[in-house]
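Q: Could you predict the 3D structure of Regulatory protein, gntR family?
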Amino acid sequence: MEQETPGLAAYQRVAETIKREVRSGALSPGDRLPSNRGVAEKYEVALGTAQKALSALEEDGWITTTPSVGTFVNSVPAEPAQQSEDLASAVAELQATVADLSARLDALEQQL
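A: Sure. Here are the predicted C-alpha cells for Regulatory protein, gntR family:
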C-alpha cells in the first residue's frame, strides 16, 4: 500500500486503497465493508487510522455507515475533475446561449 500512494497520511492511503478497490470492481456498490477493527487489520493500520479513513470515505460519498447495521459501498461518486469538466461544459453552453440571445436582441433593436 505504501508504494502505491506515497506522500499521504496513513488514513489517506487506506482511503485511496479502498477507492481503488471500488473503481476496479473488487468492491461493488452495496458490498459491506469490515468493521473498523477489520479494516485496521486488513490494511495493517491502527484502529484510529481505520476510523479516520472510513470517516473520510463517508464524507466524500464513497460509503454509508448505518449504526448497528454496517458500512456499505456506495456507487462511485463523480471525481472532482469530472465535476469540473461538467461545470466547465455547462458554463460554455450558457455563454453560447447568452451570446446568441444578445445577437438576437441587437437585431431586434436595429429593426425598431
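Q: Anything worth pointing out?
A: The chain has four helices and three strands.
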